[in-house]
Amino acid sequence: MRIVFMGTPEFAVESLKSLLETQNEIVAVVTSTDKPAGRGQLLSISEVKKFALEKKLNILQPEKLKDETFIEQLNKLNVDLIVVVAFRMLPETVWNLPRLGTINLHASILPQYRGAAPINWAIINGETETGVSTFFIEKEIDTGKIIFCEKTEISESETAGELHNKLMKLGANLLVKTVNAIEAGNYPQIPQNQLVSKNETIKLAPKISKEKCRIDFDKTSQEIFNLIRGLNPYPAAWCTLQNLYNGRVVTMKVFETEKIRENHFLTCGEIITDEKTFAKIAVKDGFISLKNVQLESKKRLGIVEFLRGFEIPDWKILK
Asked: What's the whole-number mean pLDDT along residues 60-65?
C-alpha cells in the first residue's frame, strides 16, 4: 500500500519506524512546521521530521491542512491509506481522501479517555489499566470505529513518562497489525457506542492547563501522589512557596514523591523537615514526602541536595 504518515512528537517516531519495516511504501511524512525555540529563537524541528530526514523520506509541512496546494500534493501521491499518530485534527477533505480511509493510533482503550492527554489523565485518575487503540477517523474527534485494542497494566508508582514509553512500543506493534489487516482486507470495525455499558461514564482526556497542574494539598495523599506522577516529567505538577520574612514567592515543580498514610493534627500544606534528609507536607490523610523537585530557573534535584541549598523552614506553601 501507498501510505502517508502524519505525526509530530517522539511517540509517533516508533510507529513510523515500525511501518518502514513492513512491505508498504511511505510516500510522504506530514509533520508540524519548524518553530523558533529557546533563547536564540533558532528553528526547532519535530522528532518525526528528524527521523524522516535521517531516512530520506518525502516530508510535507503544511501550515494549514485545508490549503489547496497541500490537498493537491496528497492527491498526486495516489494514497491508499493515511496513518495518524499524535498529530492535529484533520479536516474531512484530508481524512476522506485515501481509498482505504484514514486510521489513528490513540493511547487509551477507546471510548475512554478521548482527547489530547490520555496518558496523563489515566494516571491522574488512578487507573490501574490502559492501553492503545486503532480506529478509523470520522468527524468527531476520537469517535471512529475501533479496529484493534491492546491493554496493559499501570503499576502503582508508574509515571506518565514511563507509561508513554511503554504505550509507544505497544502502539507501534498494534499499528503494524492494523495496517497488515487492512492490506489483507480482513479487519473489524466496531462502533464505539457498542463498547459502552449501560451505566458506564466516559472519561475524557482534554489538554492539561497550567492551573490543572497546581497541587491542592487539601486533597488526599493518593490523589496528590497520582497527580504528581501523572504529570512527570511533563508538564509537571507545581506549587508556590512564600518566604515568611520577605514575602518572596517562588514556584516549585514536584516530580517525585512518596505518600505516607498517617493521622495528624497539622494544617494541610504545613511543611515538616529535619533540614537534611526529608521534607514532607501535611495533607488530609497523612503526608506527601518530597523526593525530587525543581525551583524556577534552577536544576532538578533530589531532596537531600535540595535541602543543602534551600532553607525550607523559612518558607510556607501558598494556597
From this structure: 96
Q: Are 157 and 123 in contact (CB under 8 A)?
A: no
What whole-number distance in Å separates Cα of residue 235 and Cα of residue 232? 7
Q: Please tell me whether the overall predicted TM-score, pTM, comes out greater than 0.85 for this model.
A: yes
Share of the chain above pLDDT 90, in %: 94
* CATH value of 2-195 in 3.80.10.10, 3.40.50.170, 3.40.50.300, 3.30.470.20: 3.40.50.170
When pLDDT is averaged across residues 53-72 and rounded to a whole number, the result is 97
pLDDT class of 39 with cuts at 50, 70, 90 = low
Joined grid coordinates for residue 28: 510522504
Nearest Cα to Cα of residue 109 among 79, 153, 67, 68: 153
Summarize the confidence of residues 60-77 as an average pLDDT. 96
Q: What is the mean pLDDT of residues 164-182?
A: 98
* Residues counted in the chain: 319
> Which CATH code fits 211-318?
3.10.25.10
Mean per-residue pLDDT for 52-79?
97
What is the rounded average pLDDT of the residues 162-174? 98
